[in-house]
Amino acid sequence: MKILVGVNKSEESQLALRHACHLLEHFDAQIDAIYVKPDVVEMARQGAYAPFATKSDIERELEKEASQVVGEIFEACEVCLGGKVPCDPLVAVGDPAEEILHAADTGGYDLIVLGGPSRSTLRGLLLGAVHNKVLLHARQPILIVRNYREIKRILVAYRGSSCDQGALEFIAPLFARKKPEITILHVQETERGESPEFAEACVMSGRDTLHELGYDPVTKLAKGDFEEEILKEVAVGRYDLVVLGAYGRRRPRYLPVISDEALNLARLTTRPVLVFRDASPKES
């Protein structure tokens, strides 16, 4: 498995890298940490220079910052190397979200990891432009890390779509060594006319999938609005990771972008979130 971690000088992004290293220790994986330097030419075009600062001044400052971040990457990578997982820094120039997306596609990565704000519920609403752009346009699953916590309890928001099935199949080998408790929650969406029989069959389908993959999951049913019920369960359940499919009830046929519901849940919860998406052959 190839993992791409987006890093900058923030504490959250360095935490995300360490989290990825802990998550994948002794796993057959390769982790690359990408730092994207601002484009000096683009900064000049946008008038982003500080007063009285020359282009050379800005370039020196950016190089200094890049060297500092790369040094921090090497420090964080020691955690990976201790767990027998290769870890290397990458440096690109340009728009952070665009460069992360480009690297993920051209490098054949299986997962993108980003550090997210974690200090308050309010900050959970403010993921930022880079997170939003990557969430909207990535073709890979995305893990947003908030705080470092050992993953002992996972909540899967499950609607029974092929994307949700893919999410179960994706996390099963990832956590096979540590075997956390996995809860499958299906929300019976009454406004959509969903019957109790369908809801029961749906959650049992998810349970059977995880049984086949070596897990003994907890199953739960709720009734009401999908987003509200998931957030309620997260608030009271003390989960360490929330997993959901990117496409909602079904995958869009022509433009497979993340659903509003998945985007809202990624923004609103203060827990780490794994948003799963599967690229079609046309996208690969």
Tag the structure with descriptive keywords:
about 45% helix, globular, 2 domains, UspA, 10 helices, 10-stranded mixed sheet, about 280 residues, alpha/beta, Rossmann fold
Give structural notes:
Belongs to the universal stress protein A family. This is Universal stress protein. InterPro entries: Universal_stress_UspA (IPR006015), UspA (IPR006016). This protein has 284 residues and is of the alpha/beta class. The protein folds into 2 domains: 148 residues, Rossmann fold; 136 residues, Rossmann fold (3-Layer(aba) Sandwich). It is 43% helix and 20% strand. It is built from 10 helices and 10 strands. It has a 10-stranded mixed β-sheet with strand order 3-2-1-4-5-10-9-6-7-8, with helices on both faces. β1, α1 and β2 form a beta-alpha-beta unit. The longest helix has 28 residues. It is globular. About 2% of the residues have low confidence.
Helix content: 40-55%
CATH architecture of the largest domain, by name, is 3-Layer(aba) Sandwich
Number of strands: 10
Question: What oligomeric arrangement do these chains adopt?
Answer: single chain
Class derived from helix and strand content: alpha/beta
> What's the end-to-end separation, in Å?
16 Å
Low-confidence stretches: 119-125
Which strand order spans the largest sheet, edge to edge or round the barrel?
Answer: 3-2-1-4-5-10-9-6-7-8
Task: Note the run of SSEs as H and E.
Answer: EHEHHEHEHHEEHEHEHEHE
Largest sheet: 10 strands, mixed
Name of the CATH homologous superfamily of the largest domain: HUPs
**CATH topology title of the largest domain:** Rossmann fold
Query: How many H/I helices?
Result: 10
Counting structural domains, the number is 2
Strand content: 15-25%
**Rg (C-alpha, Å):** 20 Å
What number is the mean pLDDT?
A: 84
What is the C-level CATH assignment of the largest domain?
Answer: Alpha Beta
Q: What spatial form do the alpha-carbon principal axes imply? A: globular
Protein name: Universal stress protein
Pfam family, one: Usp
Domain UspA: 2-146, 151-277
Family: Belongs to the universal stress protein A family.
